[in-house]
């Protein structure tokens, strides 16, 4: 007998804890500055920290496409840096493998990071653009609470390790490199069909 197959879509919102993140800032020909960045996520402030995914289940396993909209705000900027953030997206687009057992789901994924970085450095304002700037790996575990044959609620914790090399617009040229390990906690809802 063939294993049953179905699709599911999920939307989650939440918060993240960022471990110290290696950060490199290079502005024009003035050389580079490396620091250990302390970042906040501010997940419940717009734009929210969220994830959506679509899954194709075959039995207890699935292949998934997911977007995790992560955000970074530098809390300990070095001298000369008024602000630095990746708040319109440290967007991790991952291709996941998922396994489910008794309402619990375990996931692992890998994919690119699309960013929109902003900064104010030495009097120059930098903004965007959205760019393919790096990559990430991601693992997570969550639990599902069925409300009906189609609708369910879910809670999830996950960990990501992302790295970017972003180039926000402005003059002189700016290059920002960030290696960000983070833990995420999210609640959401799903629909299976």
Write the layout of secondary structure elements.
Blueprint: E1 5-18, E2 21-27, E3 32-37, E4 39-40, E5 49-58, E6 61-74, E7 81-101, E8 104-115, E9 118-121, E10 124-127, E11 131-146, E12 151-166, E13 174-192
Antiparallel strand pairs: 1-5, 1-13, 2-3, 2-13, 4-6, 5-6, 6-7, 7-8, 7-9, 8-11, 9-10, 11-12, 12-13
Keywords:
193 residues, mainly beta, eight-stranded antiparallel barrel
What does this structure look like?
The two termini are 20 Å apart. Strand 7 and strand 8 form a beta hairpin. The model has no long low-confidence stretch (mean pLDDT 95). The chain has strands at residues 5-18, 21-27, 32-37, 39-40, 49-58, 61-74, 81-101, 104-115, 118-121, 124-127, 131-146, 151-166, 174-192. It has 193 residues and is mostly beta strands. The protein has an 8-stranded antiparallel barrel. Helix content is 0%, strand content 75%.
Helix-strand sequence? EEEEEEEEEEEEE
Question: How many helices does DSSP assign?
Answer: 0
The mean pLDDT is: 95
Main β sheet profile: 8 strands, antiparallel, barrel
What's the helical proportion of residues? under 10%
Overall 3D shape: elongated
Overall structural class, as computed from helix and strand content, comes to mainly beta
Strand order of the largest sheet: 1-5-6-7-8-11-12-13
Low-confidence stretches: none
Number of strands: 13
- What integer value in Å does the Rg equal? 19 Å
* Beta-strand share of residues: over 45%
Brief sketch in words of this structure:
It contains no helices and 13 strands. It is mainly β. A hairpin with a 2-residue loop joins strand 5 and strand 6.
